[in-house]
Design brief:
Layout lengths: L1 H26 L13 H20 L3 H29 L12 H10 L1 H35 L1 H14 L8 H7 L3 H26 L3 H9 L4 H36 L7 H10 L3 H29 L10
Helix pairs in contact: 1-2, 1-3, 2-3, 2-4, 4-12, 5-6, 5-8, 5-10, 5-11, 7-8, 8-10, 9-10, 10-12, 11-12
Length: about 325
């Protein structure tokens, strides 16, 4: 009975935090320096969080897994709300931080809501650029790593080259890429592809080289051709390392995307952040950072889901 009472109390903690946040928002006077918004967007956000968690908890009545997740996540959910309460308090109720560089949550959330279509256009432009570079980087990196790992002759010539140019930071190639490629778009695609290429190449070749030679010897004894050995022995055994290289490449691609969009692009979420900084609109800077963080996290989550489906025997070994 006592344990059930504690479990129910856990579910009420987020709503207690929301209630305190609303009391502070309406009852504590502001510092008078923050620019006022047309609507209390922070309040709307808190209410949406509350409704969302309530729906999640109600669904948990009929699903044990969701119910267990709701009980486990309630304290964390409460912590997030308290953090936002603290952040909103020091930015809107006190003068501890300069209001120019630390806008209120109302302004940040309001900007995302009011400029959602313009932000969406920039996100789509970023995804278009990222997608091209990422696909090129993964494709070339996989083939390069496959050749390096499987063929000693290719490795003899390419391994030193890879070791020399691979570790060079991608941003160091920006001046050369912009002067070499005919358009800024093609230069940016190359830079993102380069950021993905090296980790995918490194992990693919490493994964293939770590396969015991007996696997290839047995398949060769049974009459397997070179192509068969690559497709049915080398690649499946190296898949955990290949996915690890793709994860590293994904993170590098997002970092490179931000860098290249701040140098010569006229659209994209990185360009938007740089533009907002140049006009001293830091609510836009924080909005852009929130969006890119959410997109990067969602992308990695999807990649991990794909990995768990492909590598069923390794599900849960690397968690995200």
């Amino acid at each position: 009975m006592k344990s059930k009472g504690l479990a129910v109390l856990k579910l009420f903690l987020p709503y207690l935090a929301i209630a305190v946040s609303l009391l502070v928002y309406f009852l504590v006077p502001g510092n008078g320096k923050q620019k006022q918004t047309d609507h209390p967007y922070y309040v709307y956000f808190l209410l949406i969080l509350g409704v969302g968690f309530l729906v999640f908890a109600l669904v948990g009545i009929f699903n044990s897994n969701i119910r267990k997740t709701a009980f486990e996540k309630a304290p964390f959910f409460t912590g997030v709300i308290i953090f936002l309460l603290f952040l909103n308090f020091i930015t809107t109720k006190t003068l501890l931080l300069p209001t120019l560089y630390f806008p209120s949550l109302d302004r940040i959330i309001g900007l995302i809501v009011e400029n959602k279509w313009f932000l969406l256009k920039n996100v789509l432009d970023s995804f278009g650029l990222l997608g091209k570079g990422f696909l090129w980087g993964v494709s070339v990196g996989f083939l390069t790593g496959l050749a390096l790992g499987y063929s000693k002759h290719v490795g003899y010539w390419l391994t030193p080259v890879t070791k020399v140019i691979g570790p060079i930071p991608t941003t160091a190639w920006i001046p050369l890429a912009l002067s070499t490629f005919p358009t800024t778009q093609s230069a940016n695609v190359f830079l993102i592809a380069f950021a993905v290429w090296f980790p995918v190449t490194l992990m693919t070749s490493s994964g293939i080289q770590s396969i015991p030679n007996v696997n290839f010897e047995v398949s060769k004894t049974l009459g397997a051709s070179t192509f068969y050995q690559i497709v049915h022995v080398a690649i499946p055994a190296a898949m955990p390392s290949i996915f690890l290289g793709i994860f590293y490449g994904t993170v590098s691609s997002f970092a490179t995307l931000m860098a290249v969009e701040m140098n010569g692009n006229s659209s994209g979420i990185g360009w938007y952040i740089n533009w907002q900084k140049s006009v001293m609109m830091y609510d836009g800077v924080y909005a852009g950072l929130i969006i890119i963080a959410a997109i990067c996290s969602l992308t990695l989550t999807i990649l991990f889901k794909v990995r768990d489906k492909v590598l069923v025997w390794q599900k849960g070994v690397i968690k995200w």
